[in-house]
Amino acid sequence: MRELIKMIVVLTIISLASGGLLAALREGTQERIDNQVLEFVKGPAVRQVFEGAANDPIAARFQLKDGNTLRNFFVGVFDGEPKGLALESSSSKGYKGDIGLIIAVDVKTDKLMGVGVTTHNETPGLGAKSKSDPKFAAQFKGVPGSGPVKVTQDGGSINAISGATITSRAVCDAVTDALGIYEKLKPQILDKMKDVKK
């Protein structure tokens, strides 16, 4: 019995020490992980939707609180003024899993400048085209920011990817979600954009 108690105490001490070490390691590397995700996962989509921007939109970013969520916003400078705003939508459920998306809005016209898929688990050659097919993404450019964005089968203007209607709907849902966030936080966004260097 004494041996059993001794073994339990030793295992408890080892577990606590290991847990503390792992927590400290995570805390110490979290900023580096966040920067890597920003540069290599979200960064390509942000730069895609801000093609031709006079600045680095990754460097020109700010955060705002949306309820309990802290959101990143990226600013694109065009014609000498900060007029493009990109934000990440809450992930939307695609055919095989969540789809992460960045959208860009022209704050002068409230129209979409572009969309870029950041993460997905969709089927290669079908739903994966939501990220790789420039024709699909190009359809979103100029879409008004008011109202829901839908595929043509649902009465909207976006042509679904052939064989991947569920994925196409998920992208449209994510765009609609992001536009809702933009509308809700627009006064704060416009105020923060004034601080962006031209």
Number of domains: 1
- Percent of residues in beta strands? 15-25%
State the secondary-structure class. alpha+beta
User: Biggest sheet: strands, sense, closure?
Assistant: 6 strands, antiparallel
Using DSSP, what is the number of strands?
A: 6
Walkthrough of the structure:
The protein is of the alpha+beta class and 198 residues long. The chain has one domain (46-193). It has helices spanning 2-49, 129-132, 134-138, 165-193; strands at 61-66, 69-78, 81-88, 92-93, 98-106, 111-119. Strands 1, 2, 3, 4, 5 and 6 form a six-stranded antiparallel β-sheet that branches. A hairpin with a 4-residue loop joins β4 (92-93) and β5. The mean pLDDT is 86.
Short account of what is shown:
The protein is of the alpha+beta class. It is built from four helices and six strands; from the N terminus they run αββββββααα. Strands 1, 2, 3, 4, 5 and 6 form a six-stranded antiparallel beta sheet that branches.
List the helices and strands and how they pair.
Elements: H1 2-49, E1 61-66, E2 69-78, E3 81-88, E4 92-93, E5 98-106, E6 111-119, H2 129-132, H3 134-138, H4 165-193
Antiparallel strand pairs: 1-2, 2-3, 3-5, 4-5, 5-6
Features:
alpha+beta; 198 residues; 4 helices; six-stranded antiparallel β-sheet; single chain; globular
